[in-house]
Amino acid sequence: MPVIDSHHHFWHYSEADYGWIPPAWSALRRDFLPVDLAAELAAAGVDGVVSVQARQSLEETSWLLDLAARHAFVRGVVGWIPLVDPDVEACLDRLAIHPAAAKLRAVRHVLQAEADDAYMLCEDFNRGIRAIGRRGLAYDILILERHLPHTLALVDNHPDQVFIVDHIAKPRIAAGELEPWAKNIRELARRPHVACKLSGLVTEADVSSWTPAMLQPYLDVVLDTFGPQRLLFGTDWPVCLAGVAYSRWKQLIESALSSFSTSERAAVMGGNAVRLYRL
């Protein structure tokens, strides 16, 4: 079973495009490209990756597919398309003729940045979700923990759509708060068509003082609720570098999975990404 990092980014850095990177994370204010990631993968024993959009543009989606065409270790792409556009089907048609179109495996919208927490419930957005579902594409859910009640309604509207929650829905780790995140994520996990990525926890904690013990209560909740068949290992590289090295994060997740069987650990570390993204 391959080891797959289900969540990472590439970018050509500019302050205009990546203004969300704070000055304290200055090490991230540079380009991160396949040559940089290849070295990390070799050192950590990771076989392939899913590259996830970091800018909301069709230009970036095409660029990620270009990279996927040139680098075999990029097994899949989570791109961005204008889901609320009346011409969303035409947009998907245009992407379908890209030489690496087969590697477009999912779509993501930065819901956490929308001014309206209920944006995901608008009819235009849901029409877009139905359109990607007809193409066999998964949908990555990028939210903050406060969006979970609306997310429950979203996923209930689309019982046949594969949804994958990024970064365990960003609980308030820095504040040490489990609730209401734990209650809501447990409810979300009751939906069998929803999976969850084990990624992005360190940057929701204090990047300079976090410890594995601080993360463990949050990991315990998702390990218990989603189980070994609906969890995916992901690093969120290079964002994770603000607080943890690539190999160290992989080791931490492997340790967290110690109670799982060998086959269950293999599923989380790669098999589930292959299955859910149809890599």
Chain-wise SSE layout:
Blueprint: E1 4-8, H1 34-44, E2 48-52, H2 58-70, E3 74-79, H3 88-96, E4 104-109, H4 123-134, E5 138-141, H5 148-157, E6 163-165, H6 181-189, E7 194-198, H7 212-226, E8 231-233, H8 246-256, H9 262-276
Parallel strand pairs: 1-2, 2-3, 3-4, 4-5, 5-6, 6-7, 7-8
Helix pairs in contact: 5-6, 6-7
Order of helices and strands: EHEHEHEHEHEHEHEHH
Radius of gyration: 17 Å
Q: What fraction, in percent, of the residue positions are helical?
A: 25-40%
Give the CATH architecture.
Alpha-Beta Barrel
What is the overall silhouette?
A: globular
Q: Count of helices?
A: 9
Structure description:
With 279 residues, the protein is an alpha/beta fold. It has one domain: TIM Barrel, CATH 3.20.20. Helix content is 38%, strand content 13%. The protein contains 9 helices and 8 strands. It has helices at residues 34-44, 58-70, 88-96, 123-134, 148-157, 181-189, 212-226, 246-256, 262-276; strands at 4-8, 48-52, 74-79, 104-109, 138-141, 163-165, 194-198, 231-233. It has an 8-stranded parallel β-sheet with strand order 1-2-3-4-5-6-7-8. Helix 5 (148-157) links the parallel strand 5 and strand 6 (163-165). Helix 5 packs parallel to helix 6 (181-189) and helix 6 packs parallel to helix 7 (212-226). The radius of gyration is 17 Å and the shape is globular. The mean pLDDT is 97.
Brief sketch in words of this structure:
The chain has one domain: Alpha-Beta Barrel (TIM Barrel), CATH 3.20.20.140. The protein is α/β, with parallel strands linked by helices.
